[in-house]
Amino acid sequence: MADTITLDVARYRPGDDSEPTFQSYEVPYREDWVVLDALNYVKDQLDGSLTYRWSCRMGVCGSCGMMVDGTPTLTCAVPLSDYVPGPIRIEPLQFFPVVRDLVVDISDFLPKLQKVQPWIIRDEEKPIADGEHLQTPAQLESYKQFSMCINCMLCYSACPVVGLEPDFIGPAAIALAQRYNLDSRDQGAAGRMEVLDEHEGMWGCTFVGECTEVCPKNVDPAGAIQLYKAASATNWFKSILLPRGSK
Amino acid sequence: MDTFSCDLLIVGGGGAGLRAAIAAAEAAPKLDIAVVSKVYPMRSHTVSAEGGAAAVIKPGDSLDAHAYDTISGGDWLCDQDVVEVFVEAAPREMLQLEHWGCPWSREPNGSVAVRAFGGMKTQRTWFAADKTGFHMLHTLFQTSLRYGSVRRFDEWFVTKLLVDEGRCQGVVAIELATGKVQGITAKAVILCTGGCGKVFPFSTNANIKNGDGMALAYRSGVPLKDMEFVQYHPTGLPQTGILITEATRAEGGWLLNKDGYRYLQDYDLGTPEPKPVLRSMELGPRDRLSQAFIKEQEKGRTLEGPYGHYVNLDIRHLGEQVIDKKLPFVRELCLKYANLDPVKELIPVRPVVHYMMGGVHTDIMGATPLDGLYAAGEVACVNLNGANRLGSNSLTECLVFGARAGKAAATFAAEAPPPSASVEAQVGDEERRLSDDFFNVTGRTERIANLRAEMQMAMEGSAGIYRTGAALAAAADTLGRLRGDAQRLQLDDRSRIFNTELISALEFGYMLDLAEVITRSAEARTESRGAHQRTDHPERDDERFLAHSLAYRTASGGPRIEYSPVTITRWPPGERVYGR
């Protein structure tokens, strides 16, 4: 086994660079490293100007998503050994504006998330003094997987619709809308449906399921979109079959 | 230079910061609230908490029982009035989070499930499988999006508190995306920036845990309290320090030495039973378990691997079904980061720096001695955790004291005068300082990573699980030298745009201050209590040290240590008894 491995890393400094360039770094190869460890080696020992985000290094904060060999990847959650013998190509997540090097601008996501009203909506708040809402393990299970989203943005970077239509509200936001729709404590599904209906992008989704494929937490945004489309189609049928106001 | 202004500014968007923001928004809907965080709030380190959050909810439990577990767990250094406020508010706060949608694990009848936890005599730890912190943080963040009065400054790094006329009036911060240094004035500020685990080399803490808020307060003259009390969690993965939750032991996991022997029975922690026994053996408190590991190592009964000594955590007997239902993240972490399956294999673990019991000195409302400055969560020391925090009290602490500080600061902000005109000049001064220290310099040679590693080794070698006065004094000398070396820090990165190397350099400066406070506070406390164990002073000394240490920054830079009394209400200091 070689004792080093090469990283080909996209560099971009707005103002100084007119377009991204690639820079190669040779780093020690360690069997027990993840890809992020190799980047940290570069940052600490070779080039302090290499710029990327990271924090928890345990696959839960969602900071360190990048394109690794062309695939959206959470770099703290994949072993370096998966890419032997290298070189490994590391680029910023695609379909996002690049702030610098491997850092992308995700500020668009937050208004999208806010739009789907990702909080419990009730006709009437239950007083705290009345204790908890009962929710059986089966009821919990029905939305649980959609609650596992870490907002890492890999699904946006994998989604062909996001690539064509940046305004598309996107896989994670739809999955989180479903997370609340399916929660037995919530009564806000109708309102969220109206929001999602305004976003034509949804109907461009091809169900190829790239979003689900790249999700590091096994959330199934493609499934969430399918649920939405089914519900929305049902609503549309109801709206033409029944007198208005009775749906 | 732009200056923003708001009524209430919260530094940090983790569990405590978001709870404070929501509490303030509800208490005073007209208040203009800003959350300033160096990462997007959902990246905050609360996200990594696993095991659960404690609050009395089930029949057969009582507030007094929770209070007694907390106080004895803290080796009687907790302020008992604070503990009483905490246990009383805890169930309400946890129910509030349930109403906001937190996906708590459930009993078959749909009520909230609770699990055992270390040092707790009753099952009272609420949990969302083993991703409790993740779910709490996302629930709080998503809920916070409802409040139009809460503005966010995401990826802004605070370099200084604005203080004038004896009152905190905002912050100076770097907007990472542009590198601009800007002032944000406020009528009140709450620090919610978490702990400083990265002062040590081997820590469960995320890269962002550099004690920013502690250092900001300290540099503004606010004392840091009980900083000598550093919690080692007994079970981290040896290479990375990734946390393997205490819930593994709550569900029935065993700690085994190299002979497969449940060694905790040799350390006055009870007798081994096949099923978990509360406040016994593997469910003892974290300080005692981490200390037992070192003793076991000294006897030559631990194992040795490429990353040092370790023991084994055995959860195989729980079976795949229980592991997948209650500890799925543990299995995922072991598979990804230790290349083993805990369903079939032993998990190598060793003690790892996890939590700071100490922090910014606050009163029971979260107010610091500096007018207009509040603190809550791990950054603060409200005197809840004493000399050793019990597992699952800290997530609840973020809620209870985040909410209290949010309300108190909102009230203060509503009545405070507008910021004084002179703070604008401070923003300009700070901008020049940053340029002069890091950009307008040449001929420097030191790398951050090397200095940081040296600081971390000095801390591990002196301020670890067992300490001596001599080793602490030697570490203080090393830290003094590092302070000089830090003046010669070289930045490779000369761009202002998203300069993470500059941020690391500033964080390193914060950590050096805190390292010094930790060692000096530990040197001054010539007794052993909870997580602070002095082999040269092995006994607890209530006569002299039933007291909180307060470290004040002096003109010469080092801390001056003073003491303040512990509040005792109903539980006079006694022996900590586990397993008998």
Question: Notable features of this structure?
Answer:
heterodimer, A: 247 residues, alpha+beta, 5-stranded mixed sheet, 13% strand, elongated, B: 580 residues, 5-stranded parallel sheet, 15 helices, 24 strands, 19% strand
What does this structure look like?
The complex is a heterodimer of chains A (247) and B (580). With 247 residues, chain A is of the alpha+beta class. Chain A is 35% helix and 13% strand. Chain A has helices at 35-46, 109-115, 137-144, 154-158, 160-164, 171-181, 189-197, 201-204, 210-214, 221-241, and strands at 4-11, 21-28, 65-68, 71-74, 88-91, 98-100, 103-104. The radius of gyration of chain A is 21 Å and the shape is elongated. The model of chain A has no long low-confidence stretch (mean pLDDT 91). Chain B starts with a strand and ends in a 15-residue tail after the last strand. Chain B contains 15 helices and 24 strands. Chain B is globular. In chain B, the strands form 6 sheets. Chain B has a 5-stranded parallel β-sheet with strand order 7-3-2-11-19. A 5-stranded mixed β-sheet of chain B has the order 20-18-12-23-24. In chain B, strands 13, 14, 15, 16 and 17 form a 5-stranded antiparallel β-sheet that branches. Chains A and B meet through helix 1, helix 2 and helix 3 of A and helix 3, helix 4 and helix 9 of B.
